[in-house]
Amino acid sequence: MNYWxxxxxxxxxxxxPLLDKGFLTIGFSDFTxxxxxxxxxxxxxxxxxxxxQKMWGKIPRTRHNLWRFLKFKKGDIVIxxxxxxxxxxxxxxxxxxxxxxxxxxxxxxxxxKKVTTDGTHLVSENGKAYDLGxxxxxxxxxxxxxxxxxxxxxxxxxxxxxxxxxxxxDLKKNVEKSIANYIENRPIHLHSIIVEKxxxxxxxxxxxxxxxxxxxxxxxxxxxxxxxxxxxxPAKNARDKEGDADIVAVFENIKxxxxxxxxxxxxxxxxWGTNQILDYKTNKESIDDGYNKIAWVITSADTFNDQAEKIxxxxxxxxxxxxxxxxxxxxxxxxxxxxxx
Length: 341
What we know:
Layout: E1 3-6, H1 12-20, E2 23-26, H2 34-41, H3 45-56, H4 63-70, E3 77-81, E4 85-91, E5 97-98, E6 116-117, E7 122-123, E8 134-146, H5 147-150, H6 153-158, E9 165-167, H7 172-183, H8 189-209, H9 212-225, E10 230-232, E11 247-251, E12 256-263, E13 268-269, H10 272-284, E14 292-299, E15 303-304, H11 306-315, E16 317-320, H12 322-332
Parallel strand pairs: 1-3, 12-14, 13-15, 14-16
Antiparallel strand pairs: 1-9, 2-8, 3-4, 4-8, 5-8, 6-7, 10-11, 11-12
Helix pairs in contact: 8-12, 10-11
């Protein structure tokens, strides 16, 4: 039995609903055919490389992610990182599946959007094929385990790797200990207690010492610290601009763009920022650039009003209040706060 780490943030709006149904997925939809799977299982590395050269005109390093995924064995344990949490899954199939084999009539994305199939790919309501090519049937042993409470330093660090997947056999004991602590509800107290107690102090300092411009700079610094390749401020006077984003963070390696509204407020924040970021994201989704796009609203305020929460739930917008953002800053590293704002 091997231990693996595998990310599914690519096409997250569909890959997570598929995981809930017991399917772990990966992209590479250009290679979705049975011969491809058979050749990999026969260790035909020459064929594998040749297919990339034929289809893409190059042999990328990222192909190793697909090779490993297709070579997962029945009984292997796979850790699937998510936002602040992780899943523990077990491979239960004998061989990989083509993505259309995951289709069911009730399959929907986040936001309750219906998914169909053209016989080879899964297809969105507007007829566009999702870039998911292969799947593994899994049993989810545990879901949404808190990283802060149950993952030790080594496992937490490994979950930050930027590649899609990798072997974590060297962390077998760390994984087993985290699972045992989760089952017995024994958090790793030092980390969680420090974060919980310190977050209030950080938030108080943010509210008393910063202003809107400095808060926005702090948010930009956070995204740079967690690995964004590019963090920019969109032009405020674009003629065709709909909605508004204060910050755009691009994570090139995982083809992810996060649009952020940064709101320096106290008390309860209303739905205005949520509507602004929704309009901006909706406008940008019309650009077919191969990136997965998500929207966040980060605020120093204590809470969001009910309407903001409703809009966010219906449109998959991440709302982050002041206390949660303070915890994120601490988890990203105390050196982040050593910044001239």
